[in-house]
Amino acid sequence: MADDVPKGPLDVVKELEALERFDARCGTDTGIESPRPSGWHMAIAVATFSQAMSVIAVRPEEFVFVDIGSGKGRGVLLASEYPFKRCIGVELDPDWHAIATKNLAVWHPPTQRCTDLEVICADAVTFEYPQEDLFLFYYNAMAGEALGELLNALK
Question: By C-alpha distance, which of 28, 32, 36, 31 is closest to 93?
Fold first, then answer.
């Protein structure tokens, strides 16, 4: 997969420019943020999200999308362009959660197919996931011991 190839400085600059264009076009603030314990927050690129969604072998309308470590909410915003039952973001950082809440309030693209969107300020490890079929989305949210705790909690 192309994302496995190490990125050079030019690739990073292009990705940052794409993040800025997304936010400028959509009136959102989803881009780069200060570091969290596992590293810097960088929202997923639209092209990367689209590529990942193009290869899934499930019917989105049968699932609740849950973005684990949703940051400022870009994953939830992008997922709303698919016919999921609903889209939920779970973010531990209250500042990023507040920004995600504002982003959801201004997000109304003509391509939106799911309008039941929610962001929750909670620890993804102890969060009580809905008792429905879930489409779990994880993008650069945590690493190391925290990731191990999350995987154990999801069993």
Answer: 36
Task: Give the residue carrying structure tokens 């973010």.
Answer: 91
62 neighbors 83 (Cβ within 8 angstroms): no
Q: Which of 44-48, 71-75, 104-108 has the lowest mean pLDDT?
A: 44-48
CA dist 75 to 46, 71, 110, 113, 138, Å? Answer: 9, 9, 17, 14, 9
Looking at per-residue confidence, does 141 or 34 come out higher? Answer: 141
Q: For CA atoms 86, 134, 136, 47, give the dihedral sign.
A: negative
Q: What are phi and psi of 87, to 5 degrees?
A: -130, 130
